[in-house]
Write a structure and sequence with these properties.
By secondary structure, the protein is α/β, with parallel strands linked by helices. It contains 11 helices and 14 strands.
């Protein structure tokens, strides 16, 4: 097997007293999409900024395609594509001009530049506004351009920091397809997202971080399986009953409430019998229930389990 494209060892970064990245280790092989997940402030963007040479780590080491991000930033920049949370495109140019500029920066030969720009404009449906100044774009149009700019040179390592935030459903599906295509062509992709269903569908491996540390890693399937428990979802008739219902679910039981949906979510460490017991207690207490459901854990459950308890 060939060496991983992205290698991260013991990476650390603090901003004054705030430790943003507290010793991260992971690798990403060619052809693999890694989902880097975590709550707001967990250190995802800081990690991506270090790996894309925009920021220096305090300690640890990272290499991209064998180049060290700290000592060979120029070479690293030539083998990566980045769509960041802060857009890199120029407002005073059109999409077409921006993409041409990126293609030149990556030293794409003139003979293929034009065709590649046209291909991506077509594929990402930028045609309707590609010749207008970026300053006039909507949020989603700008986001799409930003992502396309990261992909233009087909780099071996691609970093996408919340690429689908603000995209309409069609654009989101289009981007998912493109990310899959880039991975199938051999790119190593690091993707952050707050849409866990997206990570579930796209990522081959998932790393969940919290306060700059890895709190869980594995495939989405393994992470869900490791949780090893079903989830009981109960819709109560009256939202005012939720606090009492949560109490009745029992001490030391992991319960979430959602007032807007009049919904109680209980992680069942004790399996279905525990669920029956809870439903009986609600009935005995005279709390009316509209419906209930037992479901397998989702990646949301994995995320909440590994991150919430630490807040
Ligand atoms: N330039 C900075 N100066 C000081 N603190 C910073 C700076 N950038 C980030 N931080 C802090 O570092 C921590 C990690 O931030 P980071 O942006 O990496 O998180 P994130 O996981 O990308 O969050 P989000 O999901 O909100 O994008 C946070 O506590 C943040 O407030
Ligand atoms: Mg971020």
């Amino acid at each position: 097997m060939s060496a991983p494209v992205i290698v991260v060892e013991g990476l650390r970064k603090a901003y004054g007293d705030v430790v943003a990245v507290a010793g991260l280790d992971f690798t990403v092989d060619a052809g693999v999409v890694l989902g880097l997940l975590g709550p707001n402030g967990a250190g995802k963007t800081t990690t991506i900024e270090i790996l894309t040479t925009l920021r220096r780590a305090d300690a640890g080491r990272a290499t991209i395609a064998g180049f060290d991000v700290a000592t060979e930033p120029e070479r690293v920049r030539r083998v990566i594509g980045l769509a960041g949370q802060a857009a890199a495109v120029d407002d005073r140019l059109t999409a077409r001009e921006n993409l041409d500029l990126f293609a030149r920066l990556y030293k794409l030969p003139a003979s293929v530049r034009r065709a590649r720009v046209d291909e991506l404009i077509e594929r990402f449906d930028l045609g309707g506004f590609a010749d207008r100044l970026v300053a006039t774009y909507s949020g989603g149009q700008r986001r799409r351009l930003d992502v396309v700019a990261a992909l233009i040179a087909r780099p071996p390592a691609i970093f996408l920091d919340e690429p689908t935030t603000g995209l309409d459903p069609r654009s989101r599906l289009g981007l998912w397809e493109e990310i899959r295509r880039m991975a199938a062509d051999g790119a190593a992709v690091v993707l952050t997202t707050q849409y866990l269903e997206e990570a579930d569908r796209l990522a081959d491996h998932i790393v969940i971080i919290d306060r700059g540390e890895v709190v869980a890693r594995g495939t989405a399937e393994d992470l869900k399986k490791d949780l090893g428990r079903d989830v009981l979802v109960i819709h109560v008739t009256d939202a005012d009953d939720l606090p009492r219902a949560a109490e009745l679910a029992g001490d030391g039981v992991d319960v979430g409430t959602d007032v807007g949906h009049r919904m109680l979510t209980v992680q069942l460490a004790g399996g279905p019998p525990q669920g029956l017991d809870i439903l009986k207690r609600l009935a005995d207490a005279g709390i009316p229930v509209d419906d209930f459901q037992l479901r397998r854990p989702t990646l949301d459950d994995v995320f909440l389990t590994h991150t919430e308890a630490r807040r």
